[in-house]
Predict the structure of Helix-turn-helix domain-containing protein.
Amino acid sequence: MKPSLSYPSLRALSASLREVREARKFGLRELARALEIDPRVLSQWELGVRVPPLEEVARILGYLRADRTVTSRILSLAKHAKDPNWLDSHPADVPSALTAVVQCERSASLITNWSPLIVPGLLQTPDYARALLTASGIRVEEVDARLVVRLDRQRILSGREPVRLHAIVSELAIREVVGDEDVMSDQIDHLLAVAEAATVSLRIVPAEVVCHPGKTGMFAIYDFPGDAAIVHLEHYHASAFLHDPEGVAPYRKLAKLLAGKALSEEASKALLRDAAR
C-alpha cells in the first residue's frame, strides 16, 4: 500500500523535520545544498508527499545538530512513516503523538471529539490545562512546553477559516473539579462562550446516562477534505492512531450513538449555565 499524507506518523515526521530546520535558521534550499539533496525532494519530505529514507532523516538531524531526545523521537517517526495505524507509547518533552495531533487538527475540515472525564484540550482554559498537566506528575518544564502547544492548538477554532468542531462531553467532565472552584467557573464560562461560535457544536451527555460504551475512553475523529479519516485514541502514557477504514468505522458508529444520548446544543448550554451558579 502506498503511504498517504493522511498517515498519522508521516504527518508528524514531515512537520518535525520542518520544525528542526526552521529552529536552526536554515532555509530549505540552503539545507538541500549543504546535504546535496534536490530541494524539490526535501520539500516533498517536509510536506509529507514522499517518505524520506531513514538514513536521510538521520543525516539531516546530524547536520542540524538535533539533540538526542529530538533525534530519537524523529527517527522513531521515520521508522513508522509507512504504518497506517500507529501507537506512540514513549512520550518525550513534546511527544511524537502530540505533533501528529497538531498536524491532524490543522488540516482537518471536521473534528468529532468525545471526552468522558475531562474537558477536551481544544476547549480548555490556560488555568484548567495547567492544573490538569500539573496533576499528572510531570516535570514543571514539561508542563510549560505542553501548555504552550495545547493553547496554540486552539487557534484552529478562530480566524478566517476555523475548523468545525463537534464536541460531545460527559456531564462528569463538567462537575469534576480540576484546580479549584474558580478555575472551574472560568472553564464553564469559556465553554459557554466557545459554544456560541457557528462552527462549534457542544453537546453534553447527562450524568444519569449511566451505561454506554463511550465510558471506555476519549477519542477524536479527524475528517479531511479529499483524504481518509484518522481516529486518535488518547491514554495516560500512550496514544494510538487508526487510519484504515475497518479501524475508523466503529468510532463513527460510537460517535453517532453518543450524539443520540447527548442533550441538544441549547439544553447543553442550559446545563452549563446551571453548573456555573
